[in-house]
Task: structure prediction
Amino acid sequence: MFNKSNQTKFLFLSLIVLLALSLSACRNETQNRIRRSLQDFTADKMYITIYSIDGSVIFEGAVDGKVTRSSSGDGESGSYVYWFDDKGRYHQSNLPYLVSSYDRNKTP
Result:
């Protein structure tokens, strides 16, 4: 049926296909969980800046954990983001925003 060379090639190609399928099956939420776990492990603090429609800054602050985008039942992106600040207070916005791993107000 297969000789040794063909068996080796078949096994190698099978492993590559399996790896490609498993990586493509890693959903965005799974990837986000991995990133958040890394943030928790490294104790990196996150910061958010909210902009008005004209581009001026209307809010800046520390985030406790993560910023989450709302989503509808069909998996599409929602119309707002929400987060908790470092004092445990809930925030929600549908305005443009930027999340960073450093406080942009402090000089490096």
User: Anything to note?
Assistant: The beta strands are 46-51, 57-63, 68-71, 77-84, 90-93, 97-100. The longest strand covers residues 77-84. DSSP finds two helices and six strands in the chain. The chain has a mean pLDDT of 77.
